[in-house]
Known about the structure:
The chain is 26% helix and 29% strand. It is α/β, with parallel strands linked by helices. The longest helix is centred in the middle third of the chain and has 13 residues, at 138-150.
Amino acid sequence: MNILLTNDDGIRARGLRALYAALREAGHHVHVVAPMRQQSGVGHSLTVFEPVRTVELEEPDFCGTGVYGTPTDCVKLALGSLLPCKPDMVISGINAGANVGPDILYSGTVAAATEAAHEDLPGIAVSHASPVPPDDLLPQARHLIRLAERLDWSQLQKRRIINVNYPACPLEEAKGLRVCPQTSAVWVNSYTRREDPRGAPYWWLEGEIPPHTIEHGSDKDLLNRGHITVTPLRFEFTDREGMDVLGSMPLA
């Protein structure tokens, strides 16, 4: 396959490098277009008020295009200008930290795969539950490539992506793969106020998803229990029931 590989942790991140190595090892042709800087939490944002610049990275065992922009910039630029032809698939990751439940709205990893879906291309977002993944992510990368090769996209509706999360344990200790829905539980956040050395205030985001709000059998629940989770996602936001309700109101 001809693969476009990207992420939101940056082009030097170990998760992306592991996927690159696994894809090459499996005989796939890989184009890397990924952010030069850390872009976690940027969601589906675009660079619109400044130019998007690129730099080519050539290393003994790696080559790719670094983009001074967001993950969505990377996919749009790759598909629109940089690649000689459309890829067969876009893979985004391996992200440092899970992308389950509400995380998918904030995730640059998921956004990059979603941009592929908008172009009617298969898109996979892949993450590792630990925010500080192990040095060697090659086992997870190889597993993901085998999964990607087995997916029959013709049986899925258009403009869907597959969201894959690996548990925070060695792959051989994972409890198996489960297809599951995302949790509807949300983060309960707080901001800790601190002061810099000059006495000026700043705030640091903290929070958690309360365990009792996580539905049994959801992505967050199964990932916490050591499973590899696979969730198909779509980004059709129209509330059909809400349309019927609004349509019955005297709004005009």
